[in-house]
Amino acid sequence: MDVSTPSAVNGHAPAAKAATIRDVAERAQVSVASVSRVLNGSDAITESTRRRVLDAVEYLRYVPHVGARSLSTSRTDTIGVILPDLYGEFFSELIRGMDLAARAHGKHLIVSSSHGDTEETLAALRSMRGRVDGMIVLSPHLRAANLAADVAGRMPVVLMNGGLDEAGRPSIAIDNHGAAVTAVEHLRATGRRRIAHIRGAAGNLEADIRAEGYASALVDQEPIIVEGDFTQAAGHRAATRLLALDQRPDAVFAANDMMALGAMLAFQEAGVRCPEDVAVIGFDDVPLAALVRPTLTTLRVNIAEMGRRGVERLIGLVQAGPNGAPDSACEIVRPLLVERQSTAAAETAGSTTVNPTAQPL
C-alpha cells in the first residue's frame, strides 16, 4: 500500500491539529511577540514582517484564541446586551441597529433576555462578566437597571430605559411623557373628545410614564384606561372592553403599535370603522404600522437608530477606559408624530404626513 505525506491544499497547510501562535512565528521566522503585535494591530512592526505573519496565518489557518487574546489586551471585542424580551418587532429592530453598529466597529454581540425580572437581569449580567467589554441594559424597571450597573463595577454600562433621570449614568431614554401628550393633543385636534388609553404592563416604567402623559393632557374628561401588556392580543382584549362601555370612546391611544393593531382588529371584527367611528394612534412606528389598512398613526421612535447609538456610546466608554472623561449624559429620544389613515377624517384617509414641529432622534 502506497502511503504518501499530505500536501498543502489550495495554498493552505494540510488538515491537522489546530495551529498555535508559535507555529505562526516559526513559519514567518519572527518572534511570538511580533506575531502578537501584528494580530493586535500594532504600528510598531515593519510592513515586511506584517506580510510574512499574515501569510503564515492564512497558510496555517490560524485562529487566535479569544481567551488568551483578551488576557493580553484586556479586550474581547464583544458587547453584552440584556433586554427584557427578544420577541416582537421592537426588539427585532433594536437588535438590528445594534448589530449593524457592532459589525461596523468589528465587534460582536451577546444578547440575553431578562424577561423583565430583576434577578434574571443580574444573573444574565454575571454570566457575561469577563466575556464582554461592556454592557447595554434595557430594563422596564429603573431599579433593576441601576442595580445592574452597580453590579457591573468598573465594566462600562449604558442604560436604555424609560426614565429621564438615570442617576448620572450613561443612558438613552425616550421622552415618553411628552410623546403621550402629543398623541392626545393630535387626537383632540382631529375633533375627538372621548379618548381612551390602552396602557402597557403594570409596573413597567415606560408604560407608567406614557399613562401619566395621557392623563395630564386630557381636557374635560376623566381618564379611561384599560390594562394591557404590549402584545397584540392585549390590545384586542382591551378594545373589546372599550366597546362594551355605555359610552364608547371615539379615540384610542395605545402604548405601543402592537396593541394598537390588536385594537384595530377588534374594532373591525365588531363592525366599528376606523377612523370614522374611532381613531387609533400607537407608539414606536414598527414596520408593520405602515402596512396595515388603515395605516396606523403613531409616535415614531427610530428603534434601529437607538440601538446603533447605544452601541456607539458603549464603544466610546470602552475605548476611553476607566481614566477617560466621565460620560453621565442621558441622551433624550423625542418621538416624531407620523399621521396616517387611522386618525384621519374619512375624506382625507389615505395620506401620510409627518408633523414638522416634532423633534426626531
What's the topology here?
Blueprint (H helix, E strand, L loop, with lengths): L20 H8 L3 H8 L7 H14 L5 H8 L4 E6 L5 H16 L3 E6 L4 H11 L5 E4 L4 H11 L4 E5 L9 E4 L1 H14 L5 E4 L6 H13 L6 E3 L5 H12 L7 E4 L2 H13 L9 E6 L12 E4 L2 H18 L9 E4 L2 E4 L13 E2 L7
Parallel strand pairs: 1-2, 1-3, 3-4, 4-5, 5-11, 6-7, 6-8, 8-9, 9-10
Antiparallel strand pairs: 10-12, 12-13
Describe this structure in words.
This protein is an alpha/beta fold. The protein folds into three domains: 21-73, lambda repressor-like DNA-binding domains (434 Repressor (Amino-terminal Domain), Orthogonal Bundle), CATH 1.10.260; 78-174 and 303-333, Rossmann fold; 176-301 and 336-354, Rossmann fold. It is 40% helix and 16% strand. The protein has helices at 21-28, 32-39, 47-60, 66-73, 89-104, 118-128, 142-152, 176-189, 205-217, 232-243, 257-269, 303-320; strands spanning 78-83, 108-113, 134-137, 157-161, 171-174, 195-198, 224-226, 251-254, 279-284, 297-300, 330-333, 336-339, 353-354. The strands form two sheets. It has a seven-stranded mixed beta sheet with strand order 7-6-8-9-10-12-13, sandwiched between helices. A six-stranded parallel beta sheet has the order 2-1-3-4-5-11, sandwiched between helices. The longest helix has 18 residues, at 303-320. The chain is elongated. The termini are far apart.
